[in-house]
Amino acid sequence: MTLVAGAALVIASTPIWSDDEGGALDDAELSAAPTYTIGLQPPQDPGPFPGSVTPTTPTITIAGERDGESTFDVVRYDQVRPKSPGQLDFDHFHTGIEIQWWLKKWAYQRPDIVDLYIVGESFSGQPIYQVTITDKSTGTDTDKPAAFFEGNRHSGEISSAESSLWLANHLISRAGKDRQVDKLLDDKAVYIRPVNNPDGHDLYLYTAQTNRSSVRPTDNDGDGKLDEDPGEDLDGDGYLGQVRRYVGAGKGTHVIDDRDPAKIVMRSVGAGNGDYLMSSEGVDNDGDGRDNEDGVGGLDLHRNYPYNWHVMPGYDETGRNLTQTGAGEYPLSEPETRHVYTWLMSHTNIGAVNSMDTRVPMHLRGPSTCDPVECMYTDDRKLYEHFDRAGVGFTGYRYSGSVYIDYATRNGGDPEALFGHGPDFGYFQYGAVWYGDEIWNGGDFVDYDKDERFADWERSRWCVENRRNNCFLPWTKVQHPELGEVEIGGINPKFWAQNPAPDLIGEWAANQARFNLYLTESLPQVEISQVGVKPLRAGQSDGATHEITATVTNTGRIPTALEQAKEVKIVAPDTVAVEGARLVGDAPQFYLDGGRKQRVTLRVTKADSESVTVRAVSVRGGLDSAAARLK
C-alpha cells in the first residue's frame, strides 16, 4: 500500500531543508510531500547531503488535538550540526533529517549487505525506518540467527539513537575490511531501528520542548484537559531551565550552594530557611498553581507491551488494584510499540534484543514484577547474569540486573513493579535475551562527599575541574509574565542532565554498541558435522535403504531456546532434515544449550540421485548443511 507522509508533524517526512540555511518552504513545496510504501525500500541515491539538518521553517506543529499549544519555535542547536556535512562523526547528535539520509545512503551504496525498510508509521504519520544488515551472499536474513536493536523509543533519550547509529555504521563501514565483522555478517543478521519514535525525537531536537515518550495528547495531571500546560522558553535560549526568584533572606526554600565552586547550583534548605523560590521555566497555563505539569504527550511506550499490562490510574473500575502510569489505552495501542511487536513476531529468528533508553546508567532487563530467583528458570537467570557482568565490562555502568530488584532499589527502598514492560514481554512471552539498557550517567562522575549519592554541586564541581562550561546554563535575568524579575538557568536539561554533551556521546554510544555486538556474537548458531552414511541390507521393515548420522553443534553462547521459550512454545525444536531422499519416520527434535552437541541418526529411502543434503534447522540458531552420497 502507498501512503502519504503525515502533514500534522511537518518535519523529516518531507525534504524541508534548502540550500539557504534560513530558507523556508512555500505551500506548493509542502503540498508536494512524497509518497512512500511500507516495507522494503528499493535502493535509491538520496542525493546530496541536506542543506540543513533542522527544519528551515520558523515553527513546527506537533500532531494531535490538545488543549495547549501544538506549534513551537524551531531551535537550531549547535549540538546537532555535523563537523563536516556528508562526513559521519559522533561528536554531534544526529537529527531525523540526517539519520534518514545516512540510512538511504548506506542502502544505496551497500546493497550487498544492507536492506532499508519502512516498518510502519508513527502517531503523526511519519515513516519509521529500519535497516537489516547481513551478507546476502551467504543466505537471507531470516535463515540466520538475528539480533534486534532499537533506539529512541523515549523522546528525549536521544543517546540511544546515537548508539544504534554507531553500531550500524561500524558494521557497514568495516564490512570487507574487518575479519570479525565479515564473519558476523556471514553467519548472522542485525536489525537496527535507530529512531522508533520519530515524533518525539524531532520534538526534542528541533524545539525547546521535552517529553517522556510519545507525543499522543495525554492528561498528565488528571484535570480532564490534554497537554494544556507545556513549558515556555521565556529567555529564548532553546532550553526549558529552572527559574529562581529572590524573595529575601529566610523567606524562600533555596540558597546558592556554597559547595559548588561555580556558585551556580541551588540547594534546597526547606521553607523559611532560604533566599530563593524555585520553579520550572514557563507559566501556569491552567491556573492550578503548578507550572508545566502537563506538557506534550505523556504515554510511555515502554509500558505498552502485552505481557502483564495494567490500565492507567483512574481506569481500574474497582479503584483498588495496581495500575501503571503511561500504559496507554490497551496493550500495543501505540503504533511505535506495535511495529516493534509485529516485526519481532514475524522474525522469530531474533534471539537477542536491546531496546535502549538513557540516564541511569544501567544494563537493565527483566523481570519487572518479581524476584528473578523466584520467577525465572535458573539456567536462563544465570545466562542473564553473565551478560550483566559482560555488559559492565564494556561500559562501566554503575548498575546491572533486573528492573524489580536492582533498578527499583538502587537508591534504597523496596522492590517496585513495572507493568507492560518491554523486557518482560521479551523474556516471558518472546523467550529471548532482552535488555532495555540505560545510557549516560547524568553527569554523575565523582561522589565527592562519599555519601553514595550525586548532587548538582558535585556535577558542577566535576565540570569546573574538567574545564567544561556547557554543563549548566548561566543564570539570566528576565521579566516573568507572572512573577516579575527572575533568573533562568540551571543544569542543561538536554545535553547534560538527560544526554551527554556532544563531545562525549561518541564514547558512550560506542561502549554500548560493543555490548550489543557481544550479544550478537553470542547468538545460537547451529553447525552440522561428522556426517556419515551406512547402506542397509535390502528388505528393511520400514523400507529404509540408508542410515545417516550427523552431529549438530550450537557454537553460540545462547541456547537455541531459553527454558522460558520452551515453556511458552515460542520456538519450535531444532531438527535435522534430508533433501534428495525420503525420511523414514519422524525427524529428530531437540534443543541445544550453548556449546552443546547432539548426535542424530536418520533412516532414509534413496531416491533417483545418490547426492543428498543434510540440513540442521533451528528457528533461532539458523541453518547449516552438508553434502552426502547414498552409495
Sheet with most strands: strand arrangement: 3-6-7-9-8-14-18
Low-confidence segments, given as residue ranges, are 1-32
Helix content: 10-25%
Structural class: alpha+beta
Q: For the record, give the distance between the C-alpha atoms at the N and C termini, rounded to a whole number.
A: 52 Å
Shape descriptor:
elongated
The average pLDDT score comes to 94
What's the total count of β strands?
28
* Strand-residue proportion: 15-25%
Main beta sheet:
7 strands, mixed
Query: Count of helical segments?
Result: 14
Cα-based radius of gyration, to the nearest Å = 27 Å
Structure commentary:
Belongs to the peptidase M14 family. InterPro entries: Peptidase_M14 (IPR000834). A hairpin with a 5-residue loop joins strand 6 and strand 7. Helices cover 22% and strands 23% of the residues. Helix 3 (159-174) crosses helix 13 (502-521). The strands form nine sheets. It has a seven-stranded mixed sheet with strand order 3-6-7-9-8-14-18, with helices on both faces. A four-stranded antiparallel sheet has the order 13-10-21-20. It has 631 residues and is of the alpha+beta class. Mean pLDDT is 94; it is low at 1-32.
